[in-house]
């Protein structure tokens, strides 16, 4: 068996030695698209030609760009495939020839596509709410399996229906949210080769801007130099830019407008009416843009644009006053004259005043013109922003009107003024007449005329009864004339007042009375009241007249005494007759109720006791604090107590000086009230007497009005003052209380 096998191998070796053999290395090849690879064809035996053939059977010629053939030596040839494509796949054949001898070998070249990410943009941006298609285009042969991951976790569409892996490998997220933002991984796998590759990409979710207008409507006042602020706050991702537009024109920072840093606030300076309207707040980012409008309402304060003075004549049918005003809102126009206010419609019962308004114009119609219509009229235009008011003057031309009292009282020798008050427009001239003769006449030396712009005064000092009577005042202007008679009447003394009641008290009484029936033509200036004990002389007093005077008080009456009282009135001419005497009796002096009242003596006694206790308190304080005072004198003279120190030579004059603990502190000097000599130290002050007030320790003055109490404690009163402690000191036995 062994011999047969060896024989076969021997025969084969002999046959091969005679033939050509071809071998390709590597025997097979797999090339990824785009890669390059070479194959070596080795020939055993002599071979003159070695050629390579493409899968199409076409001989591969040298110098091709994609496939290159080169012969290294007599026995080898190399086939190089550059940047392989799918078309490069197939069976390549290497043929060796030597004359009639020929041998060949083949190699199968497989072209495969490795995992290649053709399109996987990073980052990928989407708008919130849209259906997002996250692109991941992968090619390979065979086609890969695509797996998506988010934040390291595999996305499982079965658990979240918003996620779906498309046939093309893309990841679809329906109604993408801001929370879906983050890093996504697109992983491709080829199971046949165990190949895996991945791409990470950032997914950004942009949020469409939202605008929150702070105030949808902004009000401003025009022409007052103020500014208006419009504001809107924009949110979104990325942060939106904010611009403003008005009437389609984008507004820029400048003299008229100011924008803050992020554009959220627009300041309109020096607002005028033309600035009114809608302003667009525009917020824009990658997700899009949003627009909201802010309305600016510009209000205008009222301004009266037309008002003029008017002239009319008395008894004209009517005069119309016109007032025109601008403003927004449209102002309401009203009229006023003095304290009267006129608004829309009929304004008087007689229908002589009518107000009519239309739009921005108001008219005030005054019918049947009277001279009282003349004067200053006020037109007021008002709206919710403010008001404007202007005056106009209505001039009414009318005949003179004479005013004033027609009756004047006086007496012989007393000058009196007859006043002729004239109202007229234009101004009037005034003339006085009596009995048809213009005054003053050559014989009327007791008459004088004084004129002012509105009043003419006729001053008369009656000499006799003939000067009393009628006087005529005539006023004339271009519109006509007016006359009026005035009477100068002889004045009389007033009649007597009427005593209604007397309210008596113990020492006073109030006399109640009524005014006299006749004043005598001139005002009462005083009342005289008189009283007496029956059968004795009258005692009286006069009191000036006061407003609403109904009573006079008489004083210094005796209790439980009967009096008579009477009254008279006094005017400029003199004193009138006295009234009938009225009798009254004063009241007795009543003690205080319950017997608890104290008499004057008791009050004085209490004050004396209080004063004495106060002096004792001061003396005790001086005794313990300064070793001085009345108690100290008693202790030294009667109890044998040693004095606090040597006394000065002034002791003989009623003065005692003591030093305190022999130190340099002030010395207390005690003086009795009996001393009346001047201060030896030249102070100039007189010594205290019975009218000198004492002081309590807190500085308050203690006063007692009762001289008797002061006399009782006079000898116990002391004055305390300080003197230099260098004062001469005397022997303690010489002290004098």
TrEMBL record:
<feature type="transmembrane region" description="Helical">
    <location>
        <begin position="602"/>
        <end position="625"/>
    </location>
</feature>
<keyword id="KW-0393">Immunoglobulin domain</keyword>
<keyword id="KW-1003">Cell membrane</keyword>
<dbReference type="GO" id="GO:0030424">
    <property type="term" value="C:axon"/>
</dbReference>
<feature type="compositionally biased region" description="Basic and acidic residues">
    <location>
        <begin position="697"/>
        <end position="713"/>
    </location>
</feature>
<keyword id="KW-0812">Transmembrane</keyword>
<dbReference type="Pfam" id="PF00041">
    <property type="entry name" value="fn3"/>
</dbReference>
<feature type="domain" description="Ig-like">
    <location>
        <begin position="302"/>
        <end position="395"/>
    </location>
</feature>
<dbReference type="GO" id="GO:0050808">
    <property type="term" value="P:synapse organization"/>
</dbReference>
<dbReference type="InterPro" id="IPR003599">
    <property type="entry name" value="Ig_sub"/>
</dbReference>
<dbReference type="InterPro" id="IPR013098">
    <property type="entry name" value="Ig_I-set"/>
</dbReference>
<keyword id="KW-0130">Cell adhesion</keyword>
<dbReference type="InterPro" id="IPR036179">
    <property type="entry name" value="Ig-like_dom_sf"/>
</dbReference>
<dbReference type="InterPro" id="IPR013783">
    <property type="entry name" value="Ig-like_fold"/>
</dbReference>
<dbReference type="GO" id="GO:0007156">
    <property type="term" value="P:homophilic cell adhesion via plasma membrane adhesion molecules"/>
</dbReference>
<feature type="compositionally biased region" description="Low complexity">
    <location>
        <begin position="686"/>
        <end position="696"/>
    </location>
</feature>
<dbReference type="InterPro" id="IPR003598">
    <property type="entry name" value="Ig_sub2"/>
</dbReference>
<dbReference type="InterPro" id="IPR036116">
    <property type="entry name" value="FN3_sf"/>
</dbReference>
<keyword id="KW-0677">Repeat</keyword>
<feature type="compositionally biased region" description="Polar residues">
    <location>
        <begin position="728"/>
        <end position="737"/>
    </location>
</feature>
<feature type="domain" description="Fibronectin type-III">
    <location>
        <begin position="493"/>
        <end position="589"/>
    </location>
</feature>
<dbReference type="GO" id="GO:0008046">
    <property type="term" value="F:axon guidance receptor activity"/>
</dbReference>
<keyword id="KW-0325">Glycoprotein</keyword>
<dbReference type="GO" id="GO:0005886">
    <property type="term" value="C:plasma membrane"/>
</dbReference>
<dbReference type="InterPro" id="IPR003961">
    <property type="entry name" value="FN3_dom"/>
</dbReference>
<keyword id="KW-0732">Signal</keyword>
<feature type="domain" description="Ig-like">
    <location>
        <begin position="20"/>
        <end position="110"/>
    </location>
</feature>
<dbReference type="Pfam" id="PF13927">
    <property type="entry name" value="Ig_3"/>
</dbReference>
<feature type="signal peptide">
    <location>
        <begin position="1"/>
        <end position="19"/>
    </location>
</feature>
<protein>
    <recommendedName>
        <fullName>Neural cell adhesion molecule 1a</fullName>
    </recommendedName>
</protein>
<keyword id="KW-1015">Disulfide bond</keyword>
<keyword id="KW-1133">Transmembrane helix</keyword>
<dbReference type="GO" id="GO:0043025">
    <property type="term" value="C:neuronal cell body"/>
</dbReference>
<feature type="region of interest" description="Disordered">
    <location>
        <begin position="670"/>
        <end position="737"/>
    </location>
</feature>
<dbReference type="Pfam" id="PF07679">
    <property type="entry name" value="I-set"/>
</dbReference>
<feature type="domain" description="Ig-like">
    <location>
        <begin position="113"/>
        <end position="197"/>
    </location>
</feature>
<dbReference type="InterPro" id="IPR009138">
    <property type="entry name" value="Neural_cell_adh"/>
</dbReference>
<dbReference type="InterPro" id="IPR007110">
    <property type="entry name" value="Ig-like_dom"/>
</dbReference>
<keyword id="KW-0472">Membrane</keyword>
<feature type="domain" description="Ig-like">
    <location>
        <begin position="400"/>
        <end position="489"/>
    </location>
</feature>
<feature type="domain" description="Ig-like">
    <location>
        <begin position="209"/>
        <end position="297"/>
    </location>
</feature>
<dbReference type="InterPro" id="IPR050958">
    <property type="entry name" value="Cell_Adh-Cytoskel_Orgn"/>
</dbReference>
């Amino acid at each position: 068996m062994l011999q047969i096998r060896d024989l076969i191998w021997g025969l084969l070796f002999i046959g091969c030695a005679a033939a050509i053999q071809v071998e390709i290395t590597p025997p097979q090849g797999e090339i990824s698209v785009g890669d390059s690879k070479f194959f070596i064809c080795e020939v055993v035996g002599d071979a003159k030609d070695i050629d390579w053939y493409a899968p199409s059977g076409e001989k591969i010629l040298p110098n091709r760009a994609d496939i290159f053939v080169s012969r290294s030596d007599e026995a080898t040839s190399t086939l190089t495939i550059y940047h392989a494509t799918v078309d490069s796949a197939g069976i390549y054949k290497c043929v060796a020839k030597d004359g009639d001898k020929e041998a060949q070998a083949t190699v199968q070249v497989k072209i495969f596509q490795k995992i290649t990410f053709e399109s996987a943009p990073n980052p990928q941006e989407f708008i919130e709410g849209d259906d997002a298609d996250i692109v991941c285009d992968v090619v390979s042969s065979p086609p890969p399996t695509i797996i998506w991951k988010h934040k390291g976790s595999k996305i499982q569409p079965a658990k979240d229906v918003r996620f779906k892996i498309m046939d093309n490998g893309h990841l679809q997220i329906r109604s993408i949210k801001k929370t879906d933002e983050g890093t996504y991984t697109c992983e491709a796998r080829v199971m046949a080769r165990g190949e895996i590759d991945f791409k990470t990409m950032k997914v950004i979710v942009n949020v469409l801007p939202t605008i929150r207008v702070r105030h949808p409507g902004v009000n401003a006042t025009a022409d007052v130099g103020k500014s208006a602020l419009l504001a809107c706050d924009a949110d979104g991702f990325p942060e939106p830019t904010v611009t403003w537009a008005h009437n389609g024109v984008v507004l820029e920072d400048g003299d008229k407008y100011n924008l803050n840093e992020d554009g959220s606030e627009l300041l309109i300076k020096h607002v005028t009416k033309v600035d009114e309207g809608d302003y667009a707040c525009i917020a824009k980012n990658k997700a899009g843009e949003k627009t909201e409008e802010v309305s600016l309402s510009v209000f205008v304060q009222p301004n009266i644009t037309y008002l003029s003075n008017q002239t009319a004549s008395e008894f004209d049918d009517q005069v119309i006053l016109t007032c025109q005003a601008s403003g927004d809102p449209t102002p309401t126009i009203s009229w006023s004259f003095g304290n009267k206010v006129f608004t829309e419609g009929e304004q008087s019962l007689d229908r002589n005043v009518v107000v009519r308004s239309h739009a921005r114009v108001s008219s005030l119609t005054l019918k049947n013109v009277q001279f009282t219509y003349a004067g200053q009229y006020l037109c007021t235009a008002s709206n919710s922003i403010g008001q404007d008011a202007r005056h106009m003057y209505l001039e009414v031309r009318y005949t003179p009107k004479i005013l004033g009292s027609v009756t004047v009282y006086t007496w012989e020798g007393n000058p009196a003024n007859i006043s002729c008050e004239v109202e007229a427009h234009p101004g009037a001239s005034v003339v006085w007449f009596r009995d048809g003769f213009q005054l003053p006449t050559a014989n009327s030396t007791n008459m004088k005329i004084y004129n002012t712009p509105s009043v003419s005064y006729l001053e008369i000092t009656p000499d006799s009864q003939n000067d009393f009577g009628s006087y005529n005042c005539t006023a004339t202007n271009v519109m006509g004339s007016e006359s009026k008679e005035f009477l100068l009447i002889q004045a009389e003394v007033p009649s007597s007042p009427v005593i209604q009641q007397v309210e008596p008290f113990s020492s006073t009484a109030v006399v109640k009375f009524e005014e006299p029936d006749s004043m005598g033509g001139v005002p009462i200036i005083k009342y005289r009241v008189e009283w007496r004990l029956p059968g004795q002389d009258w005692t009286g007093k006069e009191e000036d007249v006061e407003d609403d005077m109904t009573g006079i008080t008489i004083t210094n009456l005796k209790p439980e005494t009967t009096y008579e009282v009477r009254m008279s009135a006094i005017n400029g001419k003199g004193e009138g007759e006295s009234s009938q005497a009225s009798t009254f009796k004063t009241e007795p002096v009543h003690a205080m109720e319950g017997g608890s009242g104290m008499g004057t003596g008791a009050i004085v006694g209490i004050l004396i006791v209080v004063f004495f206790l106060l002096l004792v308190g001061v003396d005790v304080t001086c005794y313990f604090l300064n070793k001085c005072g009345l108690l100290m004198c008693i202790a030294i003279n009667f109890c044998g107590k040693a004095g606090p120190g040597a006394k000065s030579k002034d002791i003989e004059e009623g003065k005692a000086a003591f030093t305190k603990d022999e130190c340099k502190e002030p010395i207390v000097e005690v003086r009795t009230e009996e001393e009346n000599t001047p201060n030896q130290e030249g102070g100039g002050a007189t010594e205290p007497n019975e009218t000198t007030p004492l002081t309590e320790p807190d500085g308050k003055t203690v006063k007692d009005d009762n001289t008797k109490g002061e006399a009782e404690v006079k000898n116990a009163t002391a004055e305390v003052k300080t003197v230099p402690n260098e004062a001469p000191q005397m022997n303690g036995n010489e002290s004098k209380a």
